[in-house]
Design goal:
Length: 356
C-alpha cells in the first residue's frame, strides 16, 4: 500500500532503458503506470500503480465506438542540480477536469490527479533522461470503459497515466518551420469541442495535417470554422504574432485549447512590459502586415517544443516569409527563459515548477 490509499505493485522485471541519444517522442514507456476505475454507483476507486502493460477491453467498450475519450500532456525535467521538476502541473490538472466536464466524464479530485503524476514520476524517476533538452512526457488519459453500444455518457471509466522518456525537440538547434494556412478544412466551430483536450479533436485534424505534409509543410494553421478568416491555432500549438511591437494571440473564446505554454508566454511578455493583446487576428491582417514590413515574428507555443518559430506561412498559394526565415529575438528570449525555468537554471519566482 502506498500513501493516500494508492496501491503500488512494482515490476519484477524492469525494462532496459533507452540511451538518451536514441530517444524520439512517444515510442518508449517506463516500467509502471497509474490506473483508477470509475463506476456510477462507486465513484472513482482502486487507485493503483502497476507494471506497465496492455489494457484489456471488451470489443463493445464505448470509447472504441463513440470516442468518449480525452487526455493531458505535460513534462518532467531533470535539472543539472539533479532535481526533477514538473512544469505548471496545477494548470494541467485544472484543464483535465475542464475537459472531463465537457466530455461528460466524471471529474477527479485535483489533489489525487496531481498525486498520480508525482507518485508515478517518483517511482520511475530513473527514467527521466539526463541529456540536454530531454524530458519525461506524462500522458494522463480518460476513457469510457463501459461495454455498451448506446449513445449516452458511459457509466464506467478508466483513468490511467503513462510516462514516456522523450528526446530533445531541437537536437540540431532551433529551425523555423513552414506552416500551411488551411481554409479547406476546419478544426473546430463555436459550441464544439475545440477548447477541450478531447481525443476526437486530434482525429479531426489528421486529414488536413497529412495534406500539408505532402505539400512540404510542417503543420497546419487553422482558421475559424465559420468565416475561415480568423486565426485559431497551429497543429498542437497556440500561435502568436509580433506585429508593429504588439504581441497578438487569438482569445480563448471556446474553439482553441487554453495552452499552458501560451499562458506562460503571455505572463512573461506582460512582465517584460510588452504590449500584449488577446484578440481576434485575421489572416488578412497578417498578410497586410507582411506587405507593410510590420510583421516581425511568428511563433507557436506548446508543451512539446515550448516555442516553435515560424519562418514561413503559405496562404492560398502566397508565401509569407517571416523575419527572413530566421528566429526572432523575442521568440528566442521566450524559449530561453521558459527552458531555463523548466531545468532549474533560472530561479522559479512564479511558482511554476513542482519538485518531485
Ligand atoms: C490543439 C493544441 N493546441 C495547443 C496546445 C498547447 O498547449 P500546452 O501549451 O498546454 O501544451 C496543444 C497541446 O500541447 C494542443 O494539442
Amino acid at each position: 500500500m502506498g500513501t493516500n490509499g494508492i496501491t503500488i505493485t512494482r515490476t519484477t522485471s524492469g525494462k532496459p532503458k533507452p540511451k538518451d541519444a536514441d530517444l524520439a517522442f512517444g515510442t518508449e514507456f517506463t516500467d509502471h503506470m497509474f490506473l483508477m476505475d470509475y463506476k456510477d454507483d462507486k465513484g472513482w476507486y482502486d487507485a493503483r500503480i502497476e507494471p506497465y502493460g496492455p489494457l484489456s477491453l471488451d470489443p463493445a467498450t464505448a470509447v472504441l465506438h463513440y470516442a468518449q475519450s480525452m487526455f493531458e500532456g505535460l513534462k518532467a525535467f531533470r535539472g543539472n542540480d539533479g532535481k526533477i521538476r514538473l512544469f505548471r502541473p496545477q494548470k494541467h490538472v485544472e484543464r483535465l477536469n475542464r475537459t472531463a466536464e465537457r466530455m461528460c466524464i466524471p471529474t477527479i479530485d485535483p489533489d489525487l490527479i496531481l498525486k498520480s503524476w508525482t507518485m508515478l514520476v517518483d517511482l520511475d524517476r530513473d527514467w527521466v533522461p539526463r541529456a540536454v533538452g530531454t524530458s519525461l512526457y506524462i500522458r494522463p488519459t480518460l476513457i469510457a470503459s463501459e461495454p455498451f453500444l448506446g449513445v449516452r455518457p458511459a457509466k464506467q471509466y478508466v483513468y490511467y497515466v503513462i510516462l514516456s522518456p522523450v528526446g530533445a525537440y531541437y537536437p540540431e538547434g532551433i529551425n523555423p518551420v513552414k506552416i500551411m494556412v488551411v481554409d479547406k478544412y476546419v478544426r473546430a466551430v463555436p459550441g464544439g469541442l475545440g477548447e477541450a483536450k478531447a481525443s476526437a479533436n486530434y482525429a479531426a485534424s489528421l486529414y488536413a495535417a497529412e495534406d500539408a505534409k505532402h505539400q512540404g509543410f510542417t503543420q497546419v494553421l487553422w482558421l475559424d470554422g465559420v468565416h475561415r478568416k480568423w486565426i485559431e491555432e497551429v497543429g498542437t500549438m497556440n500561435i502568436m504574432f509580433k506585429i508593429a511591437d504588439e504581441v497578438i494571440t487569438p482569445p480563448l473564446a471556446g474553439t482553441i485549447l487554453a495552452g499552458v505554454t501560451r499562458d506562460s508566454v503571455l505572463a512573461l511578455a506582460r512582465e517584460w512590459g510588452l504590449r500584449v493583446s488577446e484578440r481576434q487576428i485575421s489572416i488578412d491582417e497578417v498578410t497586410e502586415a507582411a506587405a507593410k514590413g510590420t510583421l516581425q515574428e511568428v511563433w507557436g507555443t506548446g508543451t512539446a517544443a515550448v516555442i516553435s518559430p515560424v519562418g514561413e506561412l503559405s496562404y492560398q498559394g502566397q508565401r509569407i516569409v517571416v523575419n527572413g526565415g530566421r528566429i526572432g529575438n523575442l521568440t528566442q528570449k521566450l524559449y530561453d527563459t521558459i527552458v531555463s525555468i523548466q531545468y532549474g537554471e533560472a530561479r522559479d519566482t512564479r511558482g511554476w515548477t513542482l519538485e518531485v
